[in-house]
Task: inverse folding
């Protein structure tokens, strides 16, 4: 049983522990629940499940973000661009592409979508007169934090989530099946644009200036830093694609997250057989698709001619793989409650602090202490393990002493001000 802090009984209600409530992937919220043992036990499992998913997603996302901290941007998508000097480097890069790339962001996005519903519902339970306005205020603050964060690292995701949040607020009461359908469309739809965009580029990665598109956008950069180490910026065409793709994947997974919450899946309350089914089915579909995309690039020697269309298999793999991970994590949460489980849940409960802390360490170690581009993927992987260890060590002791993580506490004070 969790330790209850600031437990407050009011009639037949009791304030939920820690205020973690499974709200924002980066924040907790306090829930008032009916004081009945079966319901209380169900909610404890739900929050534990969400915290565990959030913690694993945060640890996993560092595995990909660290590549952009320590290597040129092109190395994130093009394994041959930099950082793959040895066989171990290359194997680590392939592992990241198959198991982490897009999937960890997918898990994060699911939780952010869920958090919007939980936050508004919790605010209503507390009797707040304008819960949607309170949620909008919190997301505005996250957007501001994201802008500040992006001054140090351009890969920030907080701004994107905050921009998508109003749409999720508007659609949160739609039927789950409709949310899933729209979510799939937003995730997969942008990737299909690569079928039209790839022919616009020549074999050297530059834009074919004879096309009507090229003459209208006057894009003289082509693939740019998306594929080439020597380039310092994205071409207009590639930049526009990623703007649409990132928005679509974030919004789509957030909508699916709302649907999975409405369907009582993310809470961890379904049967063992259900989670085993989605774990097996999701991974059987998703991992081969990711492997096909990565294998396609490897066998083509990372040819410029498939730089964009090779994204399609991995994008198609995102939803089933994420569902597979949810199945595995939910099974673990229901079966084993060891120290590792407890410490990963603690990471998830103070995810905003840990997310920003990862960036600080990544910039300082991989760009200041070591010059960016001088380390290989295997050395960056050691850095990732080091940060994992730090966050596993510090998160639970902090929460044993304080109710919130430091950044969570500041943000909570600001949006309640």
Result:
């Amino acid at each position: 049983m969790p330790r209850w802090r600031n437990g407050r009984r009011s009639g037949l209600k009791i304030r939920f522990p820690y205020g973690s409530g499974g709200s924002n992937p980066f924040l907790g919220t306090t829930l008032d629940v009916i004081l009945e043992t079966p319901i209380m036990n169900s909610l404890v499992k739900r929050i534990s499940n969400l915290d565990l998913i959030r913690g694993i997603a945060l640890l996993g996302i560092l595995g990909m973000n660290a590549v952009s901290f320590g290597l040129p941007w092109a190395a994130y998508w093009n394994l041959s661009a930099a950082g793959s000097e040895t066989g171990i480097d290359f194997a680590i890069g392939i592992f990241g592409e198959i198991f982490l790339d897009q999937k960890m962001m997918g898990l994060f996005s699911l939780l952010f979508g869920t958090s919007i519903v939980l936050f508004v519902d919790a605010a209503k339970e507390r009797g707040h007169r304008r819960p949607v306005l309170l949620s909008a205020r919190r997301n505005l603050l996250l957007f501001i934090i994201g802008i500040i964060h992006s001054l140090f690292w351009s890969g920030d995701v907080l701004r994107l989530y905050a921009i998508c949040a109003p749409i999720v607020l508007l659609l949160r009461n739609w039927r789950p099946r409709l949310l899933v359908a729209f979510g799939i469309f937003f995730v997969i739809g942008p990737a299909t644009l690569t079928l039209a965009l790839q022919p616009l580029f020549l074999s050297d990665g530059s834009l074919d200036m004879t096309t009507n598109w090229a003459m209208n956008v006057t894009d003289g950069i082509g693939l740019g830093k998306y594929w080439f180490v020597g380039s310092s910026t994205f071409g207009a065409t590639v930049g526009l694609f990623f703007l649409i793709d990132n928005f679509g994947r974030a919004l789509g997974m957030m909508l699916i997250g709302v649907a999975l919450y409405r369907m009582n899946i993310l809470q961890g309350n379904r049967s063992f057989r259900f989670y085993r089914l989605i774990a097996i089915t999701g991974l059987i579909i998703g991992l081969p698709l990711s492997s096909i995309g990565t294998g396609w690039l490897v066998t083509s020697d990372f040819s410029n001619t498939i730089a964009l269309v090779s994204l399609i298999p991995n994008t198609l793999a995102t939803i089933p793989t994420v569902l597979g991970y949810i199945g595995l994590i939910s099974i673990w949460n229901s079966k084993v409650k060891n120290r590792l489980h407890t410490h990963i849940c603690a990471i998830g409960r103070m995810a905003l602090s840990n997310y920003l802390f990862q960036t600080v360490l990544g910039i300082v170690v991989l760009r200041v202490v070591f010059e960016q581009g001088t380390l290989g993927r295997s050395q960056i992987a050691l850095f990732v393990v080091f940060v994992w260890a730090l966050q596993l060590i510090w998160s639970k002791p902090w929460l044993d002493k304080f109710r919130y993580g430091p950044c969570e506490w500041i943000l909570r004070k600001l949006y309640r001000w």
Q: What stands out?
A: Confidence is low (pLDDT under 50) at residues 1-24, 27-46.
